[in-house]
Amino acid sequence: MAVTRTKAKYFTAGALGAMILILVFQNSGNTRLDFLFWDFTLPKLVLILVTFLVGVFVGKVLFRRR
């Protein structure tokens, strides 16, 4: 059975998604965040997920096909 490029992409995306979920659930404690004039405390999992989603968004915007 040949591995197609599409299957490899789905496998890679699934593996990365699983690693992100493991990272999120292992880091569920609170952390303090300072940004410009604001400082607030939020769960690390929120910070990790927001950072990941921003990265996905930037990747989609910068590398979309025209």
Overall body shape: flat
**Arrangement of strands in the largest sheet:** 1-2
Average pLDDT, all residues: 83
Q: Mind telling me the C-alpha Rg? A: 16 Å
Q: What is the percent of helical residues?
A: 55-70%
Uncertain residue segments: none
Strand content: 15-25%
Structurally, the number of domains stands at 1
Work out the helix count: 2
H/E series: HEEH
Distance between the termini: 33 Å
Count of extended strands: 2
Structural class label: alpha+beta
**Main beta sheet:** 2 strands, antiparallel
SSE inventory with pairings:
Blueprint (H helix, E strand, L loop, with lengths): L4 H22 L3 E6 L2 E6 H19 L4
Brief digest:
The protein is α+β, with helices and mostly antiparallel strands and 66 residues long. It has helices spanning 5-26, 44-62, and strands at residues 30-35, 38-43.
